[in-house]
Specification:
Blueprint: H1 13-25, E1 31-34, E2 40-43, H2 50-59, E3 76-80, H3 86-94, E4 99-103, H4 107-119, E5 126-129, E6 132-134, E7 138-143, E8 151-152, E9 161-168, H5 169-173, E10 180-183, H6 189-194, E11 205-211, H7 219-229, E12 233-240, E13 244-250
Parallel strand pairs: 3-4, 3-10, 4-5, 6-9, 10-11
Antiparallel strand pairs: 1-2, 7-8, 7-9, 11-13, 12-13
Length: 262
């Protein structure tokens, strides 16, 4: 990424002009824009966070691996918290042989996710679970807070919530190796990482967004310690703040787990 590069710089020439006019209109209708590399992005105007998400993924490339690149023959990628599907579009092009498994519960995001898959012709490569990824199946409450929407145990009366389906993440994954997993579920990472069944998953590469929460006020340390106990080498991702940030975990599957792993 060059110092002054912006999302509009990645669009094809005519789409760049269309994008500038769309941004100037501010409340323009959702529109599809084409990147020079061929991807098509379905974007909603603010207050939706689609433009910011597209910048993070395609300009800042927050999901470009820190360290050595994985084998291009990656076969299976799991995206937990797929939002509007731009991460799926990004990986589908980078790893053309990969099939993708996605979990996303928010109905508005799901509509955009499906549109992004259709626009890029990759719907048949994605196994989509339109539900929250939890350690149990059932019905849960999801806050209605754009990209920060999260599953809560009880509504607090100050934040709008909606009832949504939750699936048992581990049962939904089914058999088969996982080459790469992304987890961005606004505090829901603790339930999954802390479940004993996560220990059995053989994932060589994991990119995780950690969040400080009431139950886990030092989220980064908790996640680093948990991943280290599972045999991961943990390194910082491309960004972090005091309350949220990104970690990458690398694990040599040929090595035995540390004896202290739980």
């Amino acid at each position: 990424m060059t110092p002054m590069q912006r999302l509009r710089d990645l669009f094809q020439p005519l789409d760049r002009l269309k994008y500038l006019a769309w941004k100037k209109a501010r409340l323009g209708a959702p529109t599809v824009f084409r990147l020079r590399t061929g991807e098509r992005l379905f974007l909603r105007a603010e207050p939706a966070a689609d433009v910011a998400t597209a910048f993070e993924i395609f300009v800042a490339e927050v999901y470009r691996q820190v360290g050595p690149e994985p084998d291009p023959s990656v076969r299976r990628i799991v995206d937990v918290g797929a939002n509007v599907g731009m991460s799926l579009v990004y990986w589908a092009r980078r790893y053309p042989n990969a099939r993708l498994v996605a979990f996303e519960p928010h109905p508005v995001h799901l509509a955009s996710l499906r549109r992004n898959l259709e626009e890029n012709g990759i719907s048949d490569r994605v196994e989509l679970h339109a539900a929250a990824a939890c350690a149990h199946a059932g019905t849960v409450q999801l806050t209605d807070d754009e990209v920060c929407s999260s599953v809560v145990s009880e509504p607090n009366g100050r934040t709008r919530t909606r009832s949504i389906e939750a699936v048992d993440f581990f049962a939904a994954l089914g058999p088969g190796p996982i080459d790469l997993m992304k987890m961005d579920i606004e505090g829901g990472e603790y339930e999954l990482l802390g479940d004993a069944r996560f220990t059995a998953l053989r994932i060589p590469l994991l990119v995780l967004e950690w969040h400080n929460t009431t139950e886990h006020p030092d989220g980064r340390k908790w996640c680093e310690d948990r991943l280290s106990s599972l045999g991961y080498t943990v390194v910082p991702g491309k960004w972090s703040s005091d309350d949220v940030g990104q970690l990458w975990g690398f694990r040599d599957l040929d090595r035995s787990l540390p004896t202290a792993a739980t």
